[in-house]
Amino acid sequence: MPIRKASAEWKGTLMEGGGTISLASGTFAGQYSFSTRFEEGVGTNPEELIGAAHAGCYSMALNAGLGKAGYAPTRVSTQAKVHLEKGAGGFTIPRIELITEAEVPDIDEATFQEQAKSAKENCPVSQALAGVEILLTARLV
After folding, report:
1. Average pLDDT in the 29-39 region?
2. Cα–Cα distances in Å, from 8 out to 4, 13, 18, 43, 46?
3. Would you list the domain boundaries of the chain?
4. Tens-digit pLDDT profile for residues 96-135
5. Do residues 65 and 57 touch, judged by C-beta distance below 8 A?
6. Which CATH number fits domain 46-140: 3.30.300.20, 3.40.1170.60, 3.10.270.10, 3.20.20.60?
7. What angle in degrees, to the nearest 10, is found between the helix axes of 109-122 and 46-68?
8. Contact at 8 Å (CB) between 99 and 82?
């Protein structure tokens, strides 16, 4: 299996400095700074990238599980909300909310929910984030 790579570089102080995050594939490079991470500045941040990775992985895991169970989803769409909070010991990511909706012909609600839960437990990114509470809202449309 391939090893995926990404890199980040920071220049300057925490408050006035800034950096870039880039993927080795060349498909993404984005600026980040104190304001993009802790305020509403323009650019990206590590939490947003974690959310993108988690949403992408979960969508694929749900699609794969449904396929193995004999269903052919026409669409799986997932949003990840990554919560960054400041506690006594510093900043943490205590939870991620996965909100997914899927179009799956000929499946009942109970089977869909079972598959959605299984995908959350078996998605490699969910497993990598085992120390974070992961909440799931799955909707069959």
Report:
1. 94
2. 14, 15, 10, 14, 10
3. 6-38, 46-140
4. 999 999 999 999 999 999 999 999 999 999 999 999 999 9
5. no
6. 3.30.300.20
7. 130
8. no
Which tokens sit at 45? Answer: 């941040």
Cα separation values, 88 from 56, 64, 91, Å: 32, 40, 8
- pTM to 2 decimal places: 0.94
The predicted pLDDT at position 87 comes to 87
Question: HEC profile for the chain?
Answer: CCCCCEEEEEECCCCCCEEEEEECCCCCEEEEEHHHHHCCCCCCCHHHHHHHHHHHHHHHHHHHHHHHCCCCCCEEEEEEEEEEEEECCEEEEEEEEEEEEEECCCCCHHHHHHHHHHHHHHCHHHHHCCCCEEEEEEEEC
> Tokens representing 35?
């304001």
Summarised one tens digit per residue, pLDDT across range 38-61 is: 998 999 999 999 999 999 999 999
* Three-state DSSP state, 63: helix
